[in-house]
Specification:
The complex is a heterodimer.
Chain A (H helix, E strand, L loop, with lengths): L3 E4 L2 E4 L5 E7 L5 E8 L3 E10 L2 E4 L6 E3 L9 E3 L8 E8 L9 E2 L3 E5 L1
Chain B lengths: L2 E3 L4 E5 L4 E3 L2 E3 L5 E7 L5 E7 L5 E3 L5 E5 L4 E6 L8 E8 L6 E3 L3 E6 L1
Parallel strand pairs in B: 2-12
Antiparallel strand pairs in B: 1-4, 3-9, 5-6, 5-10, 7-8, 8-9, 10-11, 10-12
Classes of the chains: A mainly beta, B mainly beta.
């Protein structure tokens, strides 16, 4: 099992460029999420999905889009990158069960917007 | 609104010493509480979790945590720290709904010889 994989590991963008961060999991988890991690702020939820075709906004969704066409994949799109989106991005997945379950995290993507 | 406070941003302990990392939460009902660890350049890994029942929870790598409702706390402990425990530790609160996940800002642990 690869678990949760993310690509790329590092990315530098210029302001206004767009890009997609890839996330895939091979554990057949229903739930998937995107977080950003900033110094002194912990992890903040951007978007999440409870199954294929179903997504919703988290705490900080502005400037990001998601879709979930398959159970395995949950890409995060930056429409027009801004310096404020410089961060480390983590994808996580968990299975659907009674109550909250452990989230499995990918290794992260470090994004710099200049 | 729910919140998680980790009052210590950075802690330094000597190898072999005991460790306690503090976590306080604010939530109006019974919380689901987690501790995660993040090694440098890695994603987060679950150490332990509390849902209900016994208030002293055992986790991986020799860690334990105690839920104290009266103090709204869920402190993480380890009796003897190893150099490999140097990492950042996050307390998280789930309020039941999947989207209601709140992380603390993290405590960075440094272990000195």
């Amino acid at each position: 099992n690869a678990g949760v994989t993310q690509t790329p590991k590092f990315q530098v963008l210029k302001t206004g460029q767009s890009m997609t961060l890839q996330c895939a999991q091979d554990m057949n988890h229903e739930y998937m999420s995107w977080y950003r991690q900033d110094p002194g702020m912990g992890l903040r939820l951007i978007h999440y999905s409870v199954g294929a075709g179903i997504t919703d906004q988290g705490e900080v969704p502005n400037g990001y889009n998601v879709s979930r066409s398959t159970t395995e994949d949950f890409p995060l799109r930056l429409l027009s990158a801004a310096p404020s989106q410089t961060s480390v991005y983590f994808c996580a997945s968990s299975y659907k069960g009674q109550g909250p379950n452990e989230q499995y995290f990918g290794p992260g993507t470090r994004l710099t917007v200049t | 609104a729910q919140s998680v406070t980790q009052p210590d941003i950075h802690i330094t302990v000597s190898e072999g010493a005991s460790l306690e990392l503090r976590c306080n939460y604010s939530y109006g009902a019974t919380p689901y509480l987690f501790w995660y660890v993040q090694s440098p350049g890695q994603g987060l890994q679950l150490l332990l979790k509390y849902f209900s029942g016994d208030t002293l929870v055992q986790g991986i790598k020799g860690f334990e945590a105690e839920f104290k409702r009266s103090q709204s706390s869920f402190n993480l402990r380890k009796p003897s720290v190893h150099w490999s425990d140097a990492a950042e530790y996050f307390c998280a609160l789930h309020s039941g709904g999947y989207q209601k996940v709140t992380f603390g800002i993290g405590t960075k642990l440094q272990v000195i010889p």
